């Protein structure tokens, strides 16, 4: 093992053991993918909140429900999650309303409308939750992957001491520094993923509460209209 005075990150990574280099590359890849998902999720949640607020303003302004339903159906992909939940419930109510009135029992159509909104509610939550499991996995696993590289690098550094006559700090320091970089990269990948996961989970939970409240309130409105 040859001592070196150059302890820059590039040199340490270049001189690291092949397995440690592969672990570093894996961690950097996980970090890049995590940041990609983080930026996408930030934009998706921002758009979902804006669309939800806009639809709530339109809905509670007291406009015609049929007109609002037609507008939500015509722009389904751009209308936002809450509008799609409304569109599912209102569409089911419109389809079964006349038959239920002829039968003299509106309960089935009201139950069907609620089930349609619940199904749409779950679909929207699943869409918002996408990639969160990946962030959680990166946040929990990356430090251990980095630790594996550190342990392997330190083992390799100490094995190299068998080839030198006198073990000094100058000899062993580069090998240990190379190994510790793996842990640092693991933490670099894990910390943003954990922070983002917790933040996104909180934001999605708040949206879910708004969606669920709307389902209950709109169900009550449909029940009053069915009388």
From TrEMBL:
<feature type="transmembrane region" description="Helical">
    <location>
        <begin position="18"/>
        <end position="39"/>
    </location>
</feature>
<keyword id="KW-1133">Transmembrane helix</keyword>
<comment type="function">
    <text>Part of the Tol-Pal system, which plays a role in outer membrane invagination during cell division and is important for maintaining outer membrane integrity.</text>
</comment>
<keyword id="KW-1003">Cell membrane</keyword>
<dbReference type="InterPro" id="IPR014163">
    <property type="entry name" value="Tol-Pal_TolQ"/>
</dbReference>
<keyword id="KW-0997">Cell inner membrane</keyword>
<protein>
    <recommendedName>
        <fullName>Tol-Pal system protein TolQ</fullName>
    </recommendedName>
</protein>
<dbReference type="InterPro" id="IPR050790">
    <property type="entry name" value="ExbB/TolQ_transport"/>
</dbReference>
<keyword id="KW-0132">Cell division</keyword>
<comment type="subunit">
    <text>The Tol-Pal system is composed of five core proteins: the inner membrane proteins TolA, TolQ and TolR, the periplasmic protein TolB and the outer membrane protein Pal. They form a network linking the inner and outer membranes and the peptidoglycan layer.</text>
</comment>
<feature type="transmembrane region" description="Helical">
    <location>
        <begin position="175"/>
        <end position="197"/>
    </location>
</feature>
<dbReference type="Pfam" id="PF01618">
    <property type="entry name" value="MotA_ExbB"/>
</dbReference>
<dbReference type="InterPro" id="IPR002898">
    <property type="entry name" value="MotA_ExbB_proton_chnl"/>
</dbReference>
<keyword id="KW-0131">Cell cycle</keyword>
<feature type="transmembrane region" description="Helical">
    <location>
        <begin position="132"/>
        <end position="155"/>
    </location>
</feature>
<keyword id="KW-0812">Transmembrane</keyword>
<comment type="similarity">
    <text>Belongs to the ExbB/TolQ family.</text>
</comment>
<keyword id="KW-0472">Membrane</keyword>
<feature type="domain" description="MotA/TolQ/ExbB proton channel">
    <location>
        <begin position="81"/>
        <end position="212"/>
    </location>
</feature>
